[in-house]
Amino acid sequence: MRLLARRSDAELMPRLLERVRVMYPEQVWSTNDEALIERLKAQLQRAAGHGLHLEAHVTSYVDLCFELGDSFEEQPEYAALVATLRARDVTSEAKARAIADELVIG
Description:
Blueprint (H helix, E strand, L loop, with lengths): L8 H15 L1 H4 L4 H17 L5 H14 L10 H8 L5 H13 L2
Helix pairs in contact: 1-3, 3-4, 4-6
């Protein structure tokens, strides 16, 4: 199952590209694929830096970036979430739950 499999950027990119075009059309309507792919690559790198490797977790992180902005990690109002994402002793599942909580409750 793709949602539980470890991600491969080459396989994941087309799905993410389609997802953000459908989920966030107002943010990406004037962005060409090449520029959007570069933005997504940067988000994938940050997700990996937080220990997020499963496709579902990475997809949630990408959603978070589109919902809160690519620079959300620099904003004080998200300090608790960022601390969770950066914590080495927090599992990827717990990090994904924190992302989901922010997306739903935030």
